[in-house]
Each structure stands twice: as structure tokens, then as C-alpha cells.
């Protein structure tokens, strides 16, 4: 019973609840179509965990996570297209006369290299960008604009690589019509459920990693960088290095989310990796609560679900609804929905003060109290 009431056990209760929901309730209640949609939302939730670490703990407003999401997605997409084509053959979207592929395409024929690239490519880009910006003390709105410009440039690069004679990325059409995922037939509903379990498992692992980082000495330094970089520097640490580590981890998580997104959804295009998707990922984190562990997950899943639902009914109004949600949260719930309880408590306290609560009766001065006070004097 002591273990059940310990703080260590209570910290893992949300993990147990999430595991029950994802591995028991959702597969038992949802149809295959809805389960596939939920798997898609979980991919965005994986990205949101990284954003919550970088933005919520480190104060880095990352508006370019679509870049890292896209790197992981296109790495997986190229591998799947090359695997479908067979050894020595070009993917079906390339010109039929293609008899040679550049080395940076050919390397994705290998499964182990692809898995490594899904993590290392986004991490390497984030490392270079992080060192180039944080070492020069670029932060705040300037860093946000820079990361957003990077997302726009990456989407344009994907289009340009698809418009050349080799048509390496299939341009605006993107990569689609995948038949298999590491040898598993994607048309088999059993394998589609396997992808859902894979996404759910990776999400729980990413949340656990974020929890360990937040509760470690490094997490304290990262939060200190958000409040006062000078204090961190005074303690003998370089704030730029502390922030770069979080940025690289967030990028790697985004790459994993993008890689899972491709076999689950069946398509990846430049529209999925540009500025708009990057902002949508950030909005989910802001709505859920960027400073919490599970808030980004709930916010990302909720926003993705709302987008799918409202886009079916009101396709022209979702952008306005998304913007309105972001404004309302920033204005009235800066801590996201996770802070709703404290906001309500503060509002009740303010209302009670305004109504004028009756003053507490004065403490009666007894002979014993007088004697006690006199003895202390």
C-alpha cells in the first residue's frame, strides 16, 4: 500500500491510464477507419512532446518543426518507394528511362540506414541551426521568424527537387501509393492496426523521455535558461549548449513522428511540411499547455481531431477557428487548457473578494494567552 500511495507510483498513473486508453479501449471501440485517424493524430502528438520540451521548458518558440517532421517523413517515404520498386529499379513516379539514382537517394534502400536517418538527419540540421543561432544569442521572435523561414524554404526545396529532370521527390504531388512497410502489406487491416500500436508505443516512450529530462538536473538548467540565461552562465554553464540539446531532441522526435505518419496516412507532400503545418503543431501545444508533460499531447490530438471533424463539415472555416482558438488561449489561458483549473480557482477567489467575504472573527485573548505572551517577553 505504501508503494501505491508513493509519489513515484502516482507519477506513472497517467502512463498507465494512457496505455489502457491506447492499447485496450481505442482498439476495442473504434472502427479501423477511426483508429487510423487516431494513429495519425498520435504522430502529431509525438512532435508536440518535443515542442513542449523546447518551448515549454526552454522558451524556444519553434515555428519550423515541419522541417524535421518532413525530413523523417521523406526519408521513410523514399525507402518505402524504393522497396516497392525492387533492387536496382527506380520508383514508379520517376521517368521510366531512369537508370541511375544519386547516392543520397540510393542510401534509402537500406532499412537500417533509413531508420538511422530518420533520427540523425533532423538532429543534425537542428544541431547546425541551433549552434548558429543560440551561440549568437538569437532568441524570442527573431528565432521564431528564422525557424518559420526555414520551414518555407524546406517546402520549396522539396518542390524544386521534384521539378528537376530526375524528379527525386515528385514535387507537389509528393510520395504516395505505398504497398508495403518493411515487408508488411499496408492493405492488410491487421498491419494497419500494428501501425497504430507502433505509434502509440512511440508516443509513450517519447513522453517518458521528456519526463525524465524535465525532472533531471538538465531540466532545471533548461527552465533556468527560459527565465534568466545570465544566471545559468553565472553557474558555469553555457545557455546556448543547454538550449541546443533540447532543440536537437525535439527535432529527433519530430523526425520519428514524420516517419510514422507516412505509412499510416499513405502520402507525404510539401503541404505537410511547410509553414502552415508547423504553426498547427505549435497551436496544439499552446492549447494543451506547453509547460506541462501531457498538455501538448492532449492539445495536439484535440486540435488534429477538431481539424478533421470541422473540415468535413465546414472546410472553409477551419483556418479561422484555429486562429480564434489560438487567440483565446493566449489571451485568457496562457498556460493552455492544463491551467484551466488554476484559472477557475483564481477567478473564484477574485469574485469572493469582490463580493466581500465576512472578516474572520478576532482571536479571543484569554488569560492563558496573555500569560504565554508575557513569559516570551
TrEMBL record:
<feature type="transmembrane region" description="Helical">
    <location>
        <begin position="244"/>
        <end position="268"/>
    </location>
</feature>
<feature type="transmembrane region" description="Helical">
    <location>
        <begin position="317"/>
        <end position="344"/>
    </location>
</feature>
<feature type="transmembrane region" description="Helical">
    <location>
        <begin position="113"/>
        <end position="134"/>
    </location>
</feature>
<feature type="transmembrane region" description="Helical">
    <location>
        <begin position="12"/>
        <end position="30"/>
    </location>
</feature>
<dbReference type="InterPro" id="IPR017778">
    <property type="entry name" value="ABC_transptr_urea_perm_UrtC"/>
</dbReference>
<dbReference type="InterPro" id="IPR001851">
    <property type="entry name" value="ABC_transp_permease"/>
</dbReference>
<dbReference type="InterPro" id="IPR043428">
    <property type="entry name" value="LivM-like"/>
</dbReference>
<feature type="transmembrane region" description="Helical">
    <location>
        <begin position="194"/>
        <end position="213"/>
    </location>
</feature>
<feature type="transmembrane region" description="Helical">
    <location>
        <begin position="141"/>
        <end position="161"/>
    </location>
</feature>
<dbReference type="Pfam" id="PF02653">
    <property type="entry name" value="BPD_transp_2"/>
</dbReference>
<feature type="transmembrane region" description="Helical">
    <location>
        <begin position="37"/>
        <end position="55"/>
    </location>
</feature>
<feature type="transmembrane region" description="Helical">
    <location>
        <begin position="280"/>
        <end position="305"/>
    </location>
</feature>
<keyword id="KW-0472">Membrane</keyword>
<dbReference type="GO" id="GO:0005886">
    <property type="term" value="C:plasma membrane"/>
</dbReference>
<keyword id="KW-1133">Transmembrane helix</keyword>
<keyword id="KW-1003">Cell membrane</keyword>
<keyword id="KW-0812">Transmembrane</keyword>
<protein>
    <submittedName>
        <fullName>Urea ABC transporter permease subunit UrtC</fullName>
    </submittedName>
</protein>
<dbReference type="GO" id="GO:0015658">
    <property type="term" value="F:branched-chain amino acid transmembrane transporter activity"/>
</dbReference>
Amino acid at each position: 500500500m505504501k508503494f501505491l500511495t508513493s509519489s513515484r507510483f502516482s507519477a506513472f498513473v497517467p502512463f498507465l491510464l494512457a496505455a489502457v486508453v491506447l492499447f485496450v479501449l481505442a482498439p476495442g471501440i473504434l472502427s479501423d477507419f477511426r483508429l487510423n485517424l487516431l494513429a495519425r493524430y498520435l504522430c502529431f502528438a509525438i512532435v508536440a512532446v518535443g515542442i513542449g520540451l523546447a518551448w515549454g521548458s526552454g522558451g524556444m518558440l519553434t515555428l519550423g518543426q515541419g522541417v524535421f517532421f518532413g525530413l523523417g517523413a521523406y526519408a521513410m517515404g523514399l525507402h518505402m518507394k524504393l522497396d516497392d520498386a525492387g533492387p536496382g529499379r527506380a520508383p514508379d513516379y520517376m521517368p521510366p528511362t531512369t537508370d541511375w539514382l544519386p547516392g543520397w537517394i540510393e542510401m534509402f534502400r537500406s532499412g537500417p540506414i533509413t531508420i538511422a536517418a530518420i533520427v540523425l538527419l533532423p538532429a543534425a540540421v537542428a544541431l547546425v541551426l541551433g549552434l548558429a543561432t543560440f551561440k549568437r544569442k538569437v532568441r524570442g521572435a527573431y528565432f521564431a521568424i528564422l525557424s518559420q523561414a526555414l520551414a518555407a524554404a524546406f517546402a520549396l526545396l522539396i518542390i524544386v527537387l521534384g521539378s528537376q529532370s530526375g524528379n527525386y521527390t515528385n514535387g507537389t504531388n509528393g510520395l504516395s501509393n505505398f504497398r508495403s512497410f518493411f515487408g508488411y502489406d499496408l492493405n492488410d487491416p491487421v498491419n494497419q492496426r500494428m501501425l497504430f500500436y507502433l505509434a502509440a508505443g512511440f508516443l509513450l516512450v517519447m513522453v517518458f523521455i521528456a519526463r525524465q529530462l524535465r525532472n533531471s538536473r538538465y531540466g532545471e538548467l533548461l527552465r533556468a535558461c527560459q527565465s534568466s540565461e545570465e544566471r545559468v552562465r553565472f553557474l558555469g554553464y553555457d545557455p546556448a549548449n543547454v538550449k541546443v540539446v533540447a532543440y536537437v531532441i525535439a527535432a529527433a522526435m519530430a523526425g520519428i513522428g514524420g516517419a510514422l505518419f507516412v505509412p499510416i496516412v499513405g502520402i507525404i507532400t510539401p503541404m505537410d511540411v511547410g509553414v502552415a503545418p508547423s504553426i498547427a503543431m505549435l497551436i496544439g501545444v499552446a492549447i494543451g499547455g506547453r509547460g506541462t508533460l501531457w498538455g501538448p499531447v492532449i492539445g495536439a490530438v484535440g486540435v488534429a481531431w477538431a481539424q478533421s471533424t470541422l473540415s468535413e463539415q465546414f472546410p472553409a472555416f477551419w483556418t479561422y477557428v484555429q486562429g480564434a482558438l489560438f487567440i483565446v488561449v493566449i489571451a485568457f489561458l496562457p498556460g493552455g487548457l492544463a491551467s484551466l483549473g488554476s484559472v477557475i480557482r483564481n477567478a473564484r477567489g477574485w469574485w469572493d473578494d469582490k463580493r466581500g467575504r465576512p472578516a474572520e472573527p478576532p482571536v479571543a485573548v484569554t488569560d492563558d494567552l496573555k500569560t504565554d505572551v508575557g513569559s516570551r517577553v
